[in-house]
Design goal:
The chain is an alpha+beta fold and 516 residues long. The chain has three domains: 295 residues, no CATH class; 114 residues, no CATH class; 59 residues, Arc Repressor Mutant, subunit A, CATH 1.10.10. It contains 14 helices and 18 strands. The strands form four sheets. Strands 1, 2, 3, 4, 5, 9, 10, 13, 14, 15 and 16 form an eleven-stranded mixed β-sheet that branches. Strands 8-7-17 form a three-stranded antiparallel β-sheet, with no helix packed on it.
């Protein structure tokens, strides 16, 4: 109870759908626009008349879906939003409940500064406008896990509004087939969390836990479908989705359910549904016909929340008593979009490579540590990290933190390769030895396996000349215009050197001798 919560309201986004034959399959097309229907109880979508199936216009997709998300995220703080009760994961039920959490008469809320700072920093990270003045409201409804009979939230004037988040998605099989899309954020608000209801079916009882401090993230999805060019459809809300996988499944199922319902002559009800992850379908919870009246009213026990920047900060103000937005902006870490741009500009890597580095936990830090310790070109480091290193991780289903190859070891290996002490095939062999985690350095492995490249130019000249003299048929084949013949000669020279000659150097010597 009163656990610190942030709620992000993401306005709806349209997707085009086309029917395949007479079956129930659909395919997702590119976004065709967007509309605001993400805020529960406020959307004009719920006021639209129900839509029945009509003939689509020629060349248009048969259906368009609109999805808006409400994201409830618990804040990482040491105490609750409106009380001093400790936040502790997996604490015994009702062991961290203050008088205010239990809604005893006469208790008053005290706003947690850390939660306000977290909300402001989240708003800054999502390019929101931070309201210098925000208000708290009471949202009234009756349920067993809400002992006060109301929830403290920010309905009228939230802490942040009008943000956006850009993200990249693959639209094809090739990594280069990537596009950037943007989701709009309607508002971010601080909100008191309710308690937790634990249903005991055996005893036909419901138990209430007012700790409510388990770091959960929950999503409510508002979903509707309509014919392109027609008014938006009646929406349903799918509640309490706690993973991205279930969220995607619930949205896909609900879109298809609504399409099937309309095409069979039915109508869509403005209702609340839940997702049954075992059956993979949504089921009704309660009707939301009409506009639900939560009887919002100003919270009388909390004054307006005032925020300042460096220019508007009152003179002589105690820094501990005010929140400076500019100071919080300075505390923000480098945001993902900025990091991706920096990687592209600083190291000349492709945008899709920068996305992979950020998407794999710990991979960016690994890459940057290798860059710091090696003289190899950044493009070569990128290739080794994303292809060889990440490939080995995927094969053995390991996280970056579990890798037996350290950034220092890979940096040393790339230095050996960069100064042509070893060949590229030998470097792969050394990497495989490093992966076995026998505690040896790349230099030790190179010495033991005798993988050093032949450094004597005269010896290489003699080996190449001997190879040409011993294989006149291959030389003749090359002169007849077969480009593959040169590769055969390079292979013969490398075989004679036990793989210790650089293929590039061999090719240069052979071409010079053949042209002389």
């Amino acid at each position: 109870m009163a656990a610190p919560m942030l709620r992000w309201c993401c306005p709806g986004r349209r997707f085009a759908f086309a029917r395949v034959g007479c079956g129930s399959c659909h395919r997702r097309g590119p976004p065709t626009g967007s509309t605001s229907n993400g805020k529960r109880g406020q959307s004009s979508v719920a006021q639209q008349p129900h839509i029945t199936a009509q003939k689509p216009r020629k060349g248009e997709p048969e259906w368009a879906a609109v999805v808006g998300l409400e994201i409830h995220a618990q804040i990482a703080s040491n105490s609750k939003l409106f009380s001093g009760s400790q936040v502790c994961f997996a604490a015994p039920p009702n062991s961290l409940v203050s008088f205010f959490d239990a809604s005893l008469p006469g208790t008053l809320p005290v706003l947690n500064r850390r939660c306000v700072e977290a909300a402001v920093m989240t708003g800054l990270a999502l390019d929101c406008h931070i309201n210098r003045k925000s208000l708290f409201d009471r949202k009234h409804y009756f349920y067993a896990d809400l002992p006060a009979g109301y929830q403290i939230t920010q309905q009228r004037l939230p802490i942040a509004v009008n943000g956006s988040l850009a993200y990249s998605v693959y639209v094809g099989r090739k990594p280069s087939q990537m596009v950037t899309r943007t989701v709009r954020v309607k508002q971010i608000q601080l909100e008191q969390d309710s308690g937790k209801s634990l249903h005991d079916d055996l005893r036909s009882q419901t138990l209430i836990d007012l700790n409510r401090a388990e770091g959960q993230l929950r999503v409510d999805a508002n979903i509707s479908v309509h014919r392109p060019g027609e008014p938006l459809g009646i929406r349903t809300e799918v509640k309490n989705l706690n993973s991205a996988r279930f969220l995607a499944k619930a949205i896909d199922y609900e879109i298809q359910r609504q399409i099937n319902e309309l095409e069979n002559g039915g109508e869509i009800l403005n209702e609340t549904r839940s997702f049954d992850f075992k059956l993979g379908c949504t089921v009704p919870m309660r009707d939301k016909e009409g506009k639900q009246d939560y009887r919002f009213m100003p919270e009388p026990n909390l004054p307006p929340l005032l925020l300042y920047d460096s220019g508007s900060l009152p003179s002589g103000a105690d820094p501990q008593q005010v929140i400076n937005i500019d100071q919080l902006r300075e505390r923000l870490p480098e945001l993902p979009r900025v990091t991706r741009q920096r990687l592209v500009q600083q190291y000349g890597m492709l945008p899709e490579h920068s996305c992979v580095l950020l998407n794999e936990v710990g991979l960016l830090e690994f890459f940057q540590n290798v860059i710091k310790e090696t003289r190899a070109e950044p493009k070569k480091v990128t290739s080794w990290v994303l292809n060889t290193f990440l490939g080995f991780l995927k094969q053995q289903n390991l996280a970056v933190s579990e890798s037996p190859v350290t950034p220092s070891a890979l940096a040393e290996l790339l230095d050996l390769l960069d100064r042509k002490a070893i060949s590229a095939p030998a470097a792969k062999q050394v990497f495989e030895e490093l992966w076995r985690n026998e505690g040896k350095t790349p230099a030790q492995i190179v010495a033991e396996k005798k993988l050093e490249l032949l450094q004597d130019p005269e010896a290489l000249e003699q080996l190449c000349r001997s190879t040409l003299e011993a294989h006149p048929d291959v030389v003749m084949d090359l002169k007849r215009g077969n480009p593959r013949a040169i590769n055969k000669l390079i292979g013969l020279v490398r075989k004679a050197t036990l793989g210790r000659a650089d293929p590039t150097a061999i090719k240069e010597v052979l071409e010079r001798q053949l042209s002389s």
